[in-house]
Amino acid sequence: xxxxxxxxxxxxxxxxxxxxxxxxxxxxxxxxxxxxxxxxxxxxxxxxxxxxxxxxxxxxxxxxxxxxxxxxxxxxxxxxxxxxxxxxxxxxxxxxxxxxxxxxxxxxxxxxxxxxxxxxxxxxxxxxxx
Length: 130
Prior knowledge:
Radius of gyration: 22 Å
Largest sheet: 4 strands, antiparallel
Shape: elongated
Oligomer: single chain
């Protein structure tokens, strides 16, 4: 993780065994190349996915995609439109992200989750059942 696409790296694989000549050292060279359909590749669009599980009881997973490094803010609103909690607030690198959110301080009910990242905005419904 964190190695740049298109970069080459050298290392050694060291195998220790009880036979004579131990350890065996094998030089290894590898290249980092991400294919377009590689799940680890950088997304081309912003996306906010439905939280999982939904409905949830106190803890849920928030997933979003970023095509470039962005300041991300996910705010939860009650049905009256009042901001009641912040699920995410920070700068994230380009890629696929998943954040665990604990709603221990919120009562049961329907909530709207709003993601703002760069100029992208999206909303999803969440149902908290305690």
